Amino acid sequence: MYIGFDIGGTNIKYGLFHEDKLIEFKTIKTSDGEILKAMKSVISKYENIKGIGIAAAGLVNYNDEVVFSPNINEFRNVNFKKVFEKYCKNVKAINDVNAMALCELKYGYGRNYKNFIVLAIGTGVGGAVVINRKLYLGTNGFAGELGHVKISLKGRRCRCGRIGCLESFVGRRYVLERLPSNVDMIDVYLYAKRGNKFYLNVLKKISKYLSIAIANFVNILDPEAVILSGGVANDIILKFTKEYLENEKIYRSIDILLSNFKDKAGVIGAVINILHPEYIL
Ligand SMILES: [Zn+2]
Fold it and tell me: Which of 107, 189, 237, 271 is the most buried (most CB within 10 A)?
C-alpha cells in the first residue's frame, strides 16, 4: 500500500493506494504547527507501507525537503525523508501543484497535450510546467512558481515578500480581504452566478489579472493549454479569462480549461511521483 498526502495550509488530504489505484480518501483539519504530527498519526495507523508520497505547498527540492512555504510557517527546511524514515524508507515529496500536474498528465486533460501549464488558484497561487509530456522542475526543483510572477509594480506585499505577485491579486486571502468578513469564495461564486454585479466584478478582476499572467506564461513557454484548478477557479472565471486573453495579443490559439479533479489531484500526483519517475524531466 502507498499513502499520498496533499498538505495545504488548513487541511491535510490523504489517500490510500493499492499500487496506483486510490482506494480511500480523507481530509482532516489541522493547523500550522501541527501538520507533521497529524501526518505521523495517520501513517502510524497503517502497516506494510510501500511508499509515502507528499505533495506540499511550498518550494520542494530534489532531496524531498520543503525549504520555504509562503503560507505554512511549519514548512521551513523540513526533510520529509528524515521525518518519516522510521515508518518507511521510500518517501518522496514534490510541490503540490507539480503533483496536480502529474495527475493531469496521467489521468486528466493533460493526456491530450504535449506542452501545458497548470495554474492552481487557492489560498496561494501555484503553477506547474509540462514540456514534452514531462514535468519541468528546474535546477533546484522549484520551477513553476507561477503565482509569484510579478504583474504589477504596486499592490500589497505578497506572503513571499515581494510586491505585485499574481498571488497577491487573485489568491483567496487577498481577494477576501477586500470583501465583507462573512463572505467566502463559494459565496462570491454563487452571488455572481445569480447575476450580482458587484460579485461578478470581483470575478472579472481576478480573470483580468489571470489573463495578463497567462499571456506572460504563453510568451515564455508557448504551451498548447492552460489548466486552471484550485478552490478559487470556476466556470465564470474561465469564461472571463478567455475573453480577456483575446486582448492580450498572444497571436495564437490556446486551450484554457478547468480541471475536472476537485480535491484528489494532489494525493494522486504525490503517488504518481513515487511510481512513475519517467514523468519528471
Ligand atoms: Zn509572491
Answer: 271
